[in-house]
Amino acid sequence: MNYDHIETQKAIPDASSMIETFRAIGYNLETAVADIVDNAISAEAKNIYIERIWHGGKSIITLKDDGHGMNGEELINAMRPGAQNPLAERAETDLGRFGLGLKTASFSQCRKLSVMSKKKNSDSVYWSWDLDYVALSNEWNLIKWLPEGYLNALDNHESGTIVIWTDLDRVLPLSTSENDDNAKRKFSNSLERVRQHIAMTFHRFIEDKTVKIYWCGNVIEPWNPFFPCPEENLTDTPAPQENISGGGTIKGFVLPHKSRVSEKAYKAGEGINGYPAQQGFYVYRGKRLLLAGDWLGIFRKEEHYKLVRIQIDLPNTLDTNWQIDIKKSKATPPTTCRDQIEQYAKKIRSVGEAVFRHRGKILKHRAGQDFQPLWLDKTKGGKWSFVVNRDHLLIKNIKEMAKTEPIQAIDTLLRFIEESIPTKAIYVKETHEETKDADKQEIQKEPFSDIDINLIRQMLLQMFNNQINAGKAPEQAKALLKTIEPFNNFEDLIEEL
Ligand SMILES: Nc1ncnc2c1ncn2[C@@H]1O[C@H](COP(=O)(O)OP(=O)(O)OP(=O)(O)O)[C@@H](O)[C@H]1O
Ligand SMILES: [Mg+2]
């Protein structure tokens, strides 16, 4: 298209409303802090210090790093929304993409974002965004301001950057009193989640010593979703790592059953949200975890897959294909590899489910040959069913009892069946089969589909005779039998009578 002769008109975004819109991108405190940590790691920081200072509504969160820092011009550019083109190629180690994170993450939590930065052998420079000033002036103007007490924050560092969040209106009401213990506890709890999120999101950087992250002075220990307790490493890797078509790799893990590890180790595996919620894919972009425990819309979370965690590694060149979002907390597999991921995950999930059901196996194992299950899981001709174990001691006793007290014996037998129907095992089997390959699927046997026909005949005849002896006409007796389960399925046999 040739634009030379077309009339144009500027339509500049309205500063005060646009900047408010930045607040609504959907970060939470955890993802917002992680976005600032991203920038520090991209700036090659060796140490990152996160502090939270409680002053009621005037509380402060700061993130300081000893990375390469910025000069005045670079800082102004960093503060500019859309500092970089999302389409630009980035260094492999750069965790950024959109040129927005610093601003959008900060505004999602606070009204004042101050950044001070310093390059080696230079003085520090600082600027702040103040949402109240932008609203007042309706201009994209930074202000030369820092919260009290931070002018010398970088004096002990050769280079680095400090990000300071004040007026944390999305974390707690600005009117909160400093003596409000309830609010203080809530603030502290939200920040504890942030600490855990950082320990998880950046665990690879912490593990390989790229960076140390300090939380109010204490170094954060990494939380590895696959080996949450390295001293008791019993995680299973049931299938080899696969290359994903189009790029990236996938590798499945099944965490150990509760009965195989110490309580401490099992607890370590719970992560932020507990086992059932932490199951699923863990998508990494480089060494940075984007998504933790999400089945990416391919499966649902279910109790019996709670030990399954599958690692997906992507290079940052696949950002567009996987639709990585601004918050770096969403990813969508491209259609070209969705099937492959689904098939791979099914294998891991079926192993995970078997481990989840391990408890029953352990008991069986301890009893060895002597173990007497109440129900037997039987497969014949690709069809499965559960049958009562005729050799079970209880059944033998009931047979003995029937010789002298038949009514009581029948009653006991019925109670035994009612009480012990293996509903859970049936449920697991049914849902498990749904996720298997179609050609390997076994189906549940239809009731009475392979019972000995003579047995039915014999029982029908006996019941028929009883009715006749009680004074019923043959047609009446037949009509009655046709209404009784399971004989309703054997009309032809009833007609033969
Ligand atoms: N701690 C820091 N140290 C040095 N430079 C920084 C720091 N934080 C931000 N920058 C600079 O500011 C720029 C803008 O940061 P911002 O987080 O807004 O976007 P981004 O990291 O490029 O992309 P994304 O939106 O994906 O986070 C960065 O590209 C980087 O050059
Ligand atoms: Mg960034």
Count of alpha and pi helical runs: 17
CATH superfamily (homologous) name of the largest domain: Histidine kinase-like ATPase, C-terminal domain
- Small molecules (ligands, ions, cofactors) in the structure: adenosine-5'-triphosphate, magnesium ion
Shape: elongated
**Cα Rg:** 33 Å
Overall residue-averaged pLDDT value: 88
Layout of helices and strands, plus pairs?
Layout: H1 15-21, H2 29-42, E1 47-53, E2 60-65, H3 72-79, H4 101-107, E3 112-118, E4 125-130, H5 131-137, E5 160-166, H6 181-201, H7 203-207, E6 212-215, E7 218-219, E8 242-243, E9 249-254, H8 263-268, H9 275-278, E10 280-285, E11 288-294, E12 308-314, H10 335-356, H11 358-367, E13 375-380, E14 383-388, H12 393-404, H13 406-420, H14 423-434, E15 443-444, H15 453-469, H16 474-482, H17 491-496
Parallel strand pairs: 1-6, 10-12, 14-15
Antiparallel strand pairs: 1-2, 2-5, 3-4, 3-5, 6-7, 8-9, 9-12, 10-11, 13-14
Helix pairs in contact: 1-5, 2-4, 2-6, 12-13, 15-16
The structure holds adenosine-5'-triphosphate and magnesium ion.
